[in-house]
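Annotators were shown the component list below and the corresponding predicted structure, then asked to write short factual statements about the assembly.
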Amino acid sequence: MPSRLNSTDAGFEADFRALLGAKREASTDVDDAVRDIIAKVRAEGDAALIELTSRFDGLELTAATLRVGADEIEAAHAATAPETLAALELAYERIKSHHERQRPSDDRYIDAIGVELGSRWTAVESVGLYVPGGTASYPSSVLMNAIPAKVAGVERIAMAVPAMRGALNPLVLAAARLCGVDEIYRIGGAQAIAAFAYGTETIAPVAKIVGPGNAYVAAAKRRVFGTVGIDMVAGPSEILVIADGENDPDWIAADLLSQAEHDVAAQSIMITDDAAFADAVAGAVERQLGQLSRGETARASWNDHGAIILVPSLDAAPALSDRIAPEHLELAVEDPETLFARLRNAGAVFLGRHTPEVIGDYVGGSNHVLPTARSARFSSGLSVLDFVKRTSILKLGPEQLRALGPAAMELARVEGLDAHGRSVSIRLNL
Amino acid sequence: MPSRLNSTDAGFEADFRALLGAKREASTDVDDAVRDIIAKVRAEGDAALIELTSRFDGLELTAATLRVGADEIEAAHAATAPETLAALELAYERIKSHHERQRPSDDRYIDAIGVELGSRWTAVESVGLYVPGGTASYPSSVLMNAIPAKVAGVERIAMAVPAMRGALNPLVLAAARLCGVDEIYRIGGAQAIAAFAYGTETIAPVAKIVGPGNAYVAAAKRRVFGTVGIDMVAGPSEILVIADGENDPDWIAADLLSQAEHDVAAQSIMITDDAAFADAVAGAVERQLGQLSRGETARASWNDHGAIILVPSLDAAPALSDRIAPEHLELAVEDPETLFARLRNAGAVFLGRHTPEVIGDYVGGSNHVLPTARSARFSSGLSVLDFVKRTSILKLGPEQLRALGPAAMELARVEGLDAHGRSVSIRLNL
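Structure shown to annotators:
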């Protein structure tokens, strides 16, 4: 059964801490295996990819068939049902429009003493996009990762998607085509991450790797970080719904289950001020669980990690919510704006009773790659900013160097850095 | 002797690759030791900090003396020479002014079909700032890390600085006071990082940890990443100077040495199109090396990692520079703007003959915490953005849900996520 907490109970703080601290993922220690896989790909290149893909994915490749052909991509697109294509296209356009507003502006200015300063943003040259295989091979994930990169101006996006026994999700190929991604490799796991980071004969290395993956992919990304950039290492999905008693319990139950069905380690939490409503939602969850194709997963998630927290008033919700720092936060209340103004830590917020989180997964326009595991305290969802980098600019003339030089020399002196001081003094004939 | 490369030589590409790929830091494997230290601090709290500080720093503390007293901070400030204080204050004001321009703007808008979207930025609640002890205990580093956090609106900044046998650099305390940082602990190493990440009886945990440190600190930051945010893991300093033959060789030699003196693993590279000038700079470096208090360090860095690259024309410089992706890039040429427009990967650029990199270390206003080890290909220097995070916003009414819902349901359907679909369909009575 999911946890039931009441914020006025004596043991609440301890129970709430336990909820926050609970480890939801089994920590498989794959680090040694991943180290060996990376070393093998660095040493043997394509040959290692071919051998490992045979071993792990049951697929025999050659250097020539590592890359998915243009004909395969076209065929996947052609085979996609018109209504699916239309939905992907709507999502594509809305995500693109929203992310176009995220492009940062360059800044260049001259200060009061004539020093020129500034910041210039440029796109990362090349990005590797990892797409999981199997049941978690989602076309929406391709859109959410590729579109911000394209909007940022990344020239080269290479994609890796494992093809278990040869099978690729045609919708993943269709989504890639929609985004203009045509460099796709049928490889996965730590070997794909290694190929992106270090390159092989067939695959040129990239500057940054993004996209979700299993424990091997996550461990490999951590290992190659520094050699290349990486996005966040995403954990299982989470939703927090703050709901008053005026909601339809079935709507809220559906929202809680929409995250629970992702993964047995997903977490769905509701905070409400209405005990009868809490019971009604718990009942609705039970009823709906029986009707889901992924009901077993959702039930495990809800029973092991789900929680309903009763508070005397929703005034108490923001402080609890900020400690949870949820990936997704629904504010199913009459006046969501007032509540939102009091909140701080959340990856994405969904305001009002008619904004189910699922809209943000697909067609809202915002990104569905969001900080999990309480990392919304210090990080943000994927955006155009993840695909650009900033160069800071300084420009002085002789007059400005005379004005600022002595202070720089003084600080170099007290820090014991002679050569620092000299690079100024020598220009000032001091 | 430093490497001398000529881009027209047959072996150039191989030599240049070797230069790029050379490992400059000895990789001390401290990961096991760091794991144990973190576990000990998590289990024993203050007692572990006290024991480890006694063992590693030769300093006996109690829970009451972990934190530096307000009187000590005031005394350090009072003991600072007026000219040093004035230089720190100039640096503070300039860094603050520049970083105030980096605050990101919230965005909130309603699209053509009435969907409200947006992004809201909020400050990270609390930050731990690590300051190394010993000779690398730099007041300028306190300014560069604390000011962006303050400008971002971080409410709590806690600082850790190891005090070997009790000694603290009073200028570090004076710089902290200038930045309004008064929560300072005399601890260091992996134990300080663990205390920041997990908290102890005396030290409340933080949401993000920033600041440079030795191999133990770097390994500890990598380990706690996820529990808290971290900034980049900084490597040794680097400078690339692109210089024509019209420079004073002594000026450029001084600039190359200003990075070389930091660390035997630092790297200074010059690209020039003038062979005689290259020789003159090499000679000037030799002469100046004899005059530096840190000459031994600078000599080791220059001989082991320094390089002079001769190109037939500076037209060839941007492509090489982008592959180096230097932390600091000086453009000591007649028309630096034209060259800069052709460049992409650099942490910070210094335009023209009168902008030695050292100005950026102290009083230019830009940040001196910059991406090293070629990571300017995918990352940026420290800024206000490192201390804020973004919440994305979606708000639909019934009409917008009717417009977008069917496409979301279609994508949920093809991804096999029933509960996703239901959270929309149930609201549309479908």
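Statements collected:
1. Chain A has three domains: 31-230, 235-377, 396-425.
2. Chain A has a mean pLDDT of 96.
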